[in-house]
């Protein structure tokens, strides 16, 4: 697995307001508490990675994952300028499709954003947003990366 802060990962100067980043962290931690997951901490180098990808998305004008190895990633898009709470709660809303009763150690379709938000082993967070002609893109990157086969039972717990 790659190192998400290595020199070969694109980075950009963080232009996302600090209040936005802090709100995103706060909402993640509020939701993670419901699942017994430890609090996350902001990692500045990861915010630079998230900013570079958010900037790229505004350039190409569409949602697309970076596929950079070494960290998990959630992306949100809106035509307006969404609050950090809106973006994180949208990712978390996939909980409605997660079946805790039959949770195996395999991913469940349509719940990857939710499981990454609450993934116990992911304790570092980088967040950024960028606005372009087609809207605002919010990018969150997580380390260590979540959503590993065989590790769901240990990392995604019911409320």
Automatic annotation (TrEMBL):
Residues 19-150 form the SCP domain. It comes from the Eukaryota. InterPro entries: Allrgn_V5/Tpx1_CS (IPR018244), CAP_dom (IPR014044), CAP_sf (IPR035940), CRISP-related (IPR001283), SCP_GAPR1-like (IPR034113). Pfam families: CAP. One of its GO terms (cellular component) is extracellular region. This is Golgi-associated plant pathogenesis-related protein 1. The lineage of its organism: Eukaryota, Metazoa, Ecdysozoa, Arthropoda, Hexapoda.
């Amino acid at each position: 697995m790659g190192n998400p802060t290595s020199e070969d990962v694109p980075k950009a100067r963080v232009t996302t307001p600090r209040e936005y980043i802090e709100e995103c962290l706060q909402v993640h931690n509020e939701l993670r508490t419901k699942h017994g997951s430890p609090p996350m901490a902001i990692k500045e180098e990861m915010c630079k990675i998230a900013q570079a990808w958010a900037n790229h998305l505004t350039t190409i004008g569409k949602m697309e994952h970076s596929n950079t190895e070494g960290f998990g990633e959630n992306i949100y898009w809106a035509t307006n300028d969404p609050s950090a709470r809106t973006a994180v709660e949208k990712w978390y809303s996939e909980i409605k499709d997660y079946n805790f009763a039959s949770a195996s150690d395999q991913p469940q379709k349509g719940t990857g954003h939710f499981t990454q938000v609450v993934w116990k082993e992911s304790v570092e967070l980088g967040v950024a947003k960028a606005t372009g002609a087609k809207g605002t893109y919010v990018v969150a990157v997580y380390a260590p990366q979540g959503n590993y086969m065989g590790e769901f039972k240990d990392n995604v717990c019911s409320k």
